[in-house]
Amino acid sequence: MKHIAKKRFGQNFLTDQDVITSLVEAVAPQADDLMLEIGPGLGALTKPLLQKLKKLHVVEVDRDIITWMKAEYAKPAYAKSSLVIHQADALKFDFSSLGKGLRVTGNLPYNISTPILFHLLANITHITDMHFMLQKEVVERMVAAPSTAAYGRLSVMLQYHLHMDYLITVPPDAFEPAPKVESAFVRCLPHRTLPFVAKDEALFAQVVLAAFSQRRKTLRNTLKGLLADEGFSALHIDSQLRAENLSVADFVAITNYLS
Predict the structure, then answer these.
(1) CA 205 to CA 211: how far, in whole Å?
(2) Considering only CA atoms, which of 219, 54, 27 is closest in space to residue 132?
(3) What's the pLDDT tens digit per position in 181-211?
(4) Can you tell me the distance from the alpha carbon of 36 to that of 69, in angstroms, rounded to the nearest whole number?
(5) What is the pTM of this model?
(6) Closest CA to 109 of 20, 13, 44
(7) What H or E segment, with its residue span, contains residue 188?
């Protein structure tokens, strides 16, 4: 079947075999792993993963691809492994339903990659690790350090929960159709023990969102109504700094002071 990539699903199919090999080596699947792939597409990662795993779960929303998958993976070449297809929107899928120790991978649709990452955080206690292909700019934001241009709300929220490693840069011509941007592969490991614990994670999210709501304004302005001058003094944080100058530990300290 010749599947035409659908814009509404943000489909760009990985075709470069050297890149695929590198990604599978980075994931390092073991036969008995509980693994799930988001958006398997035409099998660039699915097929080599199935060669290593006894069972692979996939979440796919495109009915045409699911029809193709059911025929393709019924072939004798895949008889030694089991593919479990979940026809669902990854943004609504309950990842915890598969049990603990889940390993998640995939070439995420770039148009909904950030919401998927936040949805996965809600299931983080069930996840061992995650390996994703994403827009390079997004990966740079995920791993960014404070006081850099890429550092923002995404950096803080993900780094609170995860240790992340930028692994591989992938050029547009590795895909069909070629996206207009470079891509990157990232490894995300949930912290076994949180380095900094927010007493109220909902409040933590609120503080981070408010602080970054107007990047060019100082914390005194963006956190007005949340943190008064005496709060900044008590925390030894300069109210004239901007959100991008604060570490995850600083945001946790503000949250715990407020709670």
Answers:
(1) 10
(2) 27
(3) 999 999 999 999 999 999 999 999 999 999 9
(4) 15
(5) 0.92
(6) 13
(7) strand 183-190
Q: Are 232 and 248 in contact (CB under 8 A)?
A: no
CB of 127 closer than 8 Å to CB of 104: yes
What is the DSSP secondary structure assignment for residue 125, as one 8-state letter?
G
Structural domains present in the chain: 7-190 (3.40.50.150), 201-258 (1.10.8.100)
CB atoms within 10 A of CB 36: 23
Q: 250 pLDDT band (50/70/90 cuts)?
A: very high
Check pLDDT > 80 for residue 256.
Answer: yes
By residue count, the chain amounts to: 259
Query: Under DSSP, is residue 38 helix (H, G, I), strand (E, B) or coil?
Result: strand
Q: Is the pLDDT of residue 10 over 50?
A: no
| Contact (Cβ atoms closer than 8 angstroms) between residue 104 and residue 130 | yes
